Amino acid sequence: MKQITAVIRPSKLEAVKSALVAIDVVGMTVNDVRGFGRQKGQVERYRGNAFTVEFLPKARVAVVVADDKVEAALAAIADAAHTGEIGDGKIFVTPVETTLRIRTGERGDPAL
To answer: Which ranges of 1-112 does DSSP label H, i.e. alpha helix?
Structure first.
């Protein structure tokens, strides 16, 4: 099992969710986060004054998938979140040792 964590534009969240559901990846955790990457924020103007927004709003999506679905999930997220512009985000894949469904006591892939 692997945990896939994607940091994406908030406007792409619904598209990413739909893409994951389409490949039968259900169950995800979503957080509203702020951060910056290579773009290092952006300059905004308000009432004629320029100021720098250093931390841009992002959405962090975390899903745990079986090993055989990792590549499909990566492709689905990347395709749905892609705009071609700087700030599209990043995807991280980390190993998961075990999963336990609290309600039933199931462990491993059946608990997903």
So the answer is: 13-22, 70-81
Total length of the chain: 112
Q: What tokens were used for 78?
A: 């990347």
Of 3.30.70.120, 3.40.50.300, 3.40.50.1260, 3.40.50.970, the CATH number of 2-111 is 3.30.70.120
d(C-alpha 80, C-alpha 82), whole Å? 6
Q: What is the per-residue pLDDT across 72-83, written as a single tens digit (0 to 9) for each?
A: 999 999 999 999
DSSP-assigned letter for residue 107: B
In the chain, what are the domain boundaries?
2-111
Token pair belonging to 72: 């499909």
Range in 24-33, 35-44, 61-70, 99-108 with the lowest mean pLDDT: 35-44
CA nearest neighbour of 53 among 69, 66, 62, 40: 40
